[in-house]
Structure formats: structure tokens, C-alpha cells
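**User:** My hope is that you can spare some time for a protein that puzzles me. I have put the entry right below:
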Amino acid sequence: MMVDGITHLLLLLSLAGSSSQPSPPAGDLRTRDLSAFLIRPSAEVTERLRHWNVAELLHLLPVSAPYRQSPANLAGQVDLPSGGYYLYELPEGYGPQREWPTVFSLHGNPPRHCERVHHKYWRGDAARRGFILISPNLDGGRWHRDFGEEAFFEAFRDAVVRFRVDRKRVYLNGYSAGASGTWNIGSRHPDIFAGIVVRCGIRRVSDAELGNLKGRGVYVIHAAEDAKCGVRQARLAVDVLKRLGVTHRYVEYPGEHDFYPQSNDDVLDFLSTLSLPREERVRVTAPFDEERRILGFVSLVGDGHTLSAGCKAEGCFVDITHVERIRHLDVWLRASQLSGDDDAVELAVNGEPFKLTPTPSVDAFLRSWQLHPSLAPAYVSDPFLASCRVISGGRILHKPDCVGPKGP
């Protein structure tokens, strides 16, 4: 029997709070607040959650029990707090003794397309080759929109807690409208994906954003007679990938708009060669006009300019450039990302260096979990989450402040 990590956490947190207060009834406002935060955080909900402290939250975090394999649960459906769901299929021999490469697959636009893509187009190919297959559902399939990205990350957070996902070998596949979302989500989160696969979709990201895929792999499939998503889109994208030196493969079929499942084995061969480096400097370029996650531990609010950020996996240095009018930039870190005797973080904004000494905070705990999904046991062993905020009054950013602990 599987343990639903998110549901278990919500149940436990319904009993959390100040020791001087009586235990709240099941289904109270705080439980609903936390559920709402995990789906779509807001300032109002976050403010109501701050009466907890980091120690309480860490103590209450569930540790997922090992997944128990049986013929009956190698495939199924997981319902999510938002009302959405995802389908999963596990390889034969799946077990918790090792980590498994994982493909997240985004479907197209027609109703019930999640089921069609998952069962008919993949045909068990991913599981047969030793991959976990996760297929989130999104009504309408508009994955390139903000709500599509939110739906993906809700499924992603649940899957990496529930299953033994190898975080160095996570891949994103998309078909049609899902391929358009794959261009967006994949190129803007290179700290998560080792490779992406786009099948007959429209590219909606800039040439500069495709540069985020350096060090990753891109497999592009399109059809010469595609009347829904013209092949010119794919050819132009491939030209940019060539110019930028991004590892890629392009297959063009003579037919019409389709998933082309006959490519599955070649796609999986390609993905099998890709893995995130254990330690690297990740650089991301992306436009923004509101709060946007740039890396798993960096988000910002601004006025539509372009930001480039990077950070090593261990020993964190954050370098923000080409920023003119941001309203604020937030950096959430965990202890494993800090280095040096004083646990200081080096931050540079437009070439101006700052030295930060982060301190644990409830804000950082909540946002780190929401923005940088990980297995729950990692938080239990790595509790010192920290948040640093840079506030901008114009072209020059003021000295950053670190958010201290809040709550009782």
C-alpha cells in the first residue's frame, strides 16, 4: 500500500500550531490554507501559515514508506489536492532499493487525451525500458500557460515523493499542445530536466531561452504535412539549437500531426544517454512580468525584462545580471547549498556583490518545498532552510535582507 505523502502531511498539519491552543477540528481553515499554498501560494495564505515554526513543520513531515510492488499497483491513477490527477506506470522489477529514470509526459488538447497518450501512444514502452512514466492531466491541455505549469509542478511534487525518482534523470515529453508546454517548462527549468522531447508542437520561447538547454538534450519530432502546428516552427527551433550548440536530434516524418509512437524506442535510447551533472553552474534566461520561478530556488517580480541566474549545486553563488527594474528577487536555500565556515552566500546583482548570512525561516521552509520539490527525508536531515530577499527601488538594488525566524 502506498503512502500519499501530500494527504498525510495535510492531515498531520491540521493538528499543528501553538501548544497553547486546542487542537483544531479536522478540515479546519489551516488545513485548507496549506492545501491552497501547495497548489497556488498567495501572500494572504502564507501570512496565515507563519504561526508555525520550522521545527514543528520538520517534525511533522512524513517520510514516505517504501513502495510495495505488486501486479495490481504497477500502474494506476493518483488524485491531487487541486482536483487534478496523473496516471503512472512503473517498470517490472520496480522497487525502492534504487532510483529510476522518469519521463513526465504532457498530453495534447482533446478531452481525455491524457488517457489516450498514456495508454495508446506510449504502449508500455517506457516501463518496458526501465523508465517510470508519469502523465499529468490538464483540461484543455494548455501547458504553455501559467496554470499549465502549476498543474505540472503539482504532479511533479507528488511523484518525486511517492516514487523513487532519479532526480538526475528526469525528462519531459510533450505532444501537440503538450509539446508547446514542454518547450516552455523544459527550457525555463534546466535545473530539473536532463532532456526534453517535443512532438509536433509550437515553440513559444525565445532563442535566448533555448540557450538554457545547453548541457541538456532535445529530441524534436515533427511532420512535414502538419496542418495544426506547421513544420516551419520545428525547423526554426532546430536551426537555433544548432547555432547554440545544444545537443539535439530531429526526426521529420512525411505524414500529418501525430504522436509518432514508432519513435519511442529511439527517444528512450536518446534519453538514456542524458543525465544532469552532479555539480554544475546552471544559467537560466527568461522573461518575466510577474512573480516567476527562474530556478528551483530563485523567483522574482519585475517589469518584463530578461534575467540570467546561476548557482552551483554545492557551495552557492547566485549571479543576477541584466536586471533593471525588478521589484524584488527571492532566493531560498537549504543547508546543503551553503558552503564555508560562516555559511555565507555570495550574491551579485548587476555586478555589485553582497555577502549574505541566511537564517532559517518558515517562509523559506514553505517556499523551498513548493519551489524546489525533493524527497521528504532530505528535509528531515537538512533542516536549515533560509530565505534572502533583495528589494529594488530602481536601477540599483538596495542591500539585501535575510528573513529571520517567525512564529512562536
About this structure: The two ends are 37 Å apart (CA to CA). The chain has three domains: 5-60, 75-272, 281-403. The chain has a mean pLDDT of 74. Residues 5-60 form one domain.
